[in-house]
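Figure 3 (text version): structure tokens given as input.
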């Protein structure tokens, strides 16, 4: 990518934009150059500043996830799209096989956390760029560029992430004969800041109250003690029991009873929902050997736990997304002009990637350095994680490349998919 040349586009330019979601955006550019005693362009510089703030769209879809077997009015909870921690991670939440004992209790869900309780939807972005251009002679130009960017927003990837104070910065040096050839080297660094995984945060907060398996057991016990008799006392239950009792044999009677109870539960949210909510609130207040009270949003107790979990990395039992990666790269190009053709010769060499955080891709390779990018050096440190969630390999490199892995390189789609593909010859892999 090439930006505006300060020798060709000097002066001041500015823009300002406003829009929905309290969007405000401003951009400034200043460029100038100096000439020598011979009237030749000698030194040019440019400065770019960009700032943006907005309120991001809030994720408030509380319908059941795709493939759910229940409707939005199901009275015993469900796995909702933008509620996290309500997933059926334990199997003891289904009492449809014990309809006589646990009257009115079928499949139920633990309440989770709405995304809006776990996320600041403020979005901001700041960018700074400066370039210095110096002609060593009339055909030889030396250039230095520095790029910096930081921002915060919500990101949808394999999970939902809050990018909080993420930073990118790049130093670039180039020597060129403009329009003829260039050789360019740059170093790019990335810092994820205080970024955290929103879904993992909710799950960790639930686990801090107690395991979902223990919660399910206590929910069923309290239902049996407090609400099964109220279900039995309803005239609708008496009618269901009468129909089931008329079946030909005990097995048919049980099957019909379960089916009729399931129909009643799914069609009478007005009757069952208050019982579910009351039972849920009671279990969420329990404190004992295996369960602590629910960490309710907008309380100091919630805030303290939230800060603790999002402040620790995954390896420490938290949800912070740690990433401090670096990419070093050198390449050049020479253009040979003929009357009947235009030849371009490009050499790419010396790509170096050092990872101490996380590099991932949901749909493609995490690292792909094959096409013309031989002699790559990739170092994945002990805290580094490289992964993808698709059928492609995680890392794909060309000839004369070196991979040193002290961390994790994993294809999470299937153990049948490759994690590393080496194409060409002369490789070194160290683990």
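Below: residues designed for each position.
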């Amino acid at each position: 990518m090439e930006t505006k040349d300060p020798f060709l586009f000097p002066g001041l330019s500015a823009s300002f934009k406003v829009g929905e979601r309290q969007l405000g955006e401003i951009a400034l550019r200043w460029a100038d150059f100096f000439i020598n005693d011979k009237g030749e362009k000698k030194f040019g510089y440019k400065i770019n500043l960009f700032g943006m703030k907005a309120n991001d769209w809030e994720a408030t879809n509380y319908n059941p996830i795709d493939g759910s077997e229940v409707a939005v009015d199901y009275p015993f909870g469900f796995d909702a799209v933008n509620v996290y921690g309500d997933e059926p991670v334990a199997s003891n939440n289904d009492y449809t096989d014990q309809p006589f004992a646990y009257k009115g209790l079928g499949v139920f869900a633990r309440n989770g956390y709405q995304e809006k309780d776990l996320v600041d939807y403020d979005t901001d972005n700041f960018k700074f760029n400066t370039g210095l251009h110096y002609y060593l002679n009339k055909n030889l130009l030396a250039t230095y560029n520095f790029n910096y960017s930081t921002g915060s927003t919500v990101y949808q990837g394999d999970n939902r992430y809050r990018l909080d104070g993420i930073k990118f910065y790049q130093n670039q040096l180039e020597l060129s004969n403009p329009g003829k050839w260039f050789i360019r080297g740059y170093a790019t660094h990335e810092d994820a800041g205080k970024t955290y995984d929103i879904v993992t945060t909710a799950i960790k907060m639930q686990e801090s109250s107690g395991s979902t398996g223990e919660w399910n057991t206590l929910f069923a016990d309290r239902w049996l003690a407090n609400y099964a008799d109220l279900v039995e006392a309803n005239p609708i239950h008496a009618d269901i029991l009468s129909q089931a009792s008329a079946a030909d044999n005990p097995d048919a009677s049980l099957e019909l009873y379960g089916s009729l109870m399931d129909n009643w539960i799914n069609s009478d949210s007005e009757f069952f929902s208050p019982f579910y909510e009351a039972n849920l609130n009671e279990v969420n207040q329990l404190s004992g050997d295996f369960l602590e009270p629910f960490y309710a949003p907008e309380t100091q107790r919630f805030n303290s736990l939230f800060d603790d979990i999002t402040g620790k990395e995954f390896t420490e039992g938290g949800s912070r997304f740690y990433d401090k990666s670096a990419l070093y790269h050198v390449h050049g190009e020479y253009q040979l002009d003929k009357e009947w053709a235009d030849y371009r010769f490009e050499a790419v060499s010396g790509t170096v990637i050092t990872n101490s955080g996380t590099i991932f891709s949901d749909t493609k390779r995490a690292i792909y350095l094959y096409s013309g990018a031989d002699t790559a050096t990739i170092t994945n440190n002990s805290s580094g994680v490289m992964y993808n969630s698709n059928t492609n390999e995680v890392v794909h490199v060309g000839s004369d490349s070196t991979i040193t892995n002290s961390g994790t390189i994993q294809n999470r789609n299937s153990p049948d998919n490759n994690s590393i593909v080496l194409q060409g010859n002369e490789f070194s892999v160290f683990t």
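Residues 250-267 form the longest helix (18 residues).
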